């Protein structure tokens, strides 16, 4: 069975602060994929990143960065110099590499960036 | 189309009424998924299609839920005799590839249908 835990239900920061969203996962599969999605008020899930379990290199994309630590089963997401437009619900998700193709999502973190 | 289109955007149903939710995936996308998202929760898997074949329906909560994709493109999620606990956002996602490499392309989600059962 797969499980994704996002312990932070809500986070509020002031614009330009850095913020880290935590994600811890559980899986018995040796190979798997991890995702982050953003869900603005419009409701659509916007893809941010996909990482496979073979690659533990951290990744940076503009103000976004991801820290994948296989030893602690964590895949944390950091937004540097946050902006009001970053306000949304962020979901971490897991997909094993086997026949099951669906994503298992965490419960999400509501990020509010205040001006 | 350019994205995954879902209709209606909002649906209010009286308890006991049947509803049908439509998903129009990105043209050429082989895989199609339905998820249910309760208020304040993450999406939960309902069912998966590869072309017209429903390969996994393990997430459907009861036999009142039925999904089809007869021609391998548009899909319909039908809920019979709706109950208040069915109130949620129903999300559809599509993906290009068929096998394990499907994850390389990721999943494109629609904006969902918000179902409210009163």
Tell me what you see in this structure:
The complex is a heterodimer of chains A (115) and B (118). Chain A is mostly beta strands and 115 residues long. Chain A contains no helices and twelve strands. Chain A has strands at residues 3-5, 10-14, 19-21, 24-26, 32-39, 46-52, 59-61, 64-69, 74-79, 88-96, 104-105, 109-114. The N and C termini of chain A lie far apart (41 Å). Helices cover 3% and strands 47% of the residues of chain B. The longest helix of chain B is centred in the last third of the chain and has 4 residues, at 102-105. Chain A binds chain B through residues 4, 6, 33, 35, 37, 42-47, 50, 52, 91, 93, 95, 97-98, 100-108, and chain B through 31, 33, 40-45, 48, 56, 59, 89, 91, 93, 95, 100, 102-103, 106-112, 114.
Multimeric status of the protein: heterodimer
Secondary-structure class of chain A = mainly beta
Count of runs of 4 or more consecutive helical residues of chain A = 0
How widely separated are the two ends of chain B?
33 Å
Q: Taking Cα atoms only, what radius of gyration of chain B do you get, to the nearest Å? A: 14 Å
* Number of DSSP strand runs of chain B: 11
- What coarse outline of chain B follows from CA principal-axis ratios? globular
Contiguous low-pLDDT stretches of chain A (5 residues minimum) are none
Tell me the total number of β-strands of chain A: 12
Largest sheet of chain A: 6 strands, mixed
Helix and strand pattern of chain B = EEEEEEEEEHEE
Order of helices and strands of chain A: EEEEEEEEEEEE
What percentage of amino acids of chain B are in beta strands?
Answer: over 45%
Question: What is the largest interface, and how many residues per chain?
Answer: A-B, 27 and 26 residues
Tell me the radius of gyration of chain A: 14 Å
End-to-end gap of chain A? 41 Å
Largest β sheet strand count, sense and barrel closure of chain B: 7 strands, mixed
Form type of chain A: globular
Mean pLDDT of chain A: 92
Range of helix content of chain A = under 10%
């Amino acid at each position: 069975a797969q499980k994704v835990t996002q312990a932070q239900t809500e986070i509020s920061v002031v614009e330009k602060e850095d913020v880290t969203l935590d994600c811890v996962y559980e899986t018995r599969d040796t190979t798997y994929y991890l995702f982050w999605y953003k869900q603005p008020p419009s409701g659509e899930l916007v893809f941010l990143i996909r990482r496979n379990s073979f690659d533990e290199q951290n990744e940076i994309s503009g103000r976004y960065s991801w820290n994948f630590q296989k030893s602690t089963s964590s895949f944390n997401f950091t937004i540097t110099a946050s902006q009001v437009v970053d306000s949304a619900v962020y979901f971490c998700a897991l997909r094993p590499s086997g026949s099951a193709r669906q994503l298992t999502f965490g419960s999400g973190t509501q990020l509010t960036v205040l001006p | 189309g350019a994205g995954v289109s879902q209709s209606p955007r909002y649906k209010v149903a009286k308890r006991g009424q049947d509803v049908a939710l439509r998903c129009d995936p990105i043209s050429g996308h082989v895989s199609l998924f339905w998820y249910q998202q309760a208020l304040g929760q993450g999406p939960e898997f309902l069912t998966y299609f590869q072309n017209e074949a429903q390969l996994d329906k393990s997430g459907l909560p009861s036999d009142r839920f039925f999904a089809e994709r007869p021609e391998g493109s548009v899909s319909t999620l039908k809920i019979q005799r709706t109950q208040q606990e069915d109130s949620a956002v129903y999300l559809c996602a599509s993906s290009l590839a068929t096998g394990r490499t499907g994850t390389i392309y990721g999943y494109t989600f629609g904006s969902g249908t918000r179902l409210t059962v009163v």
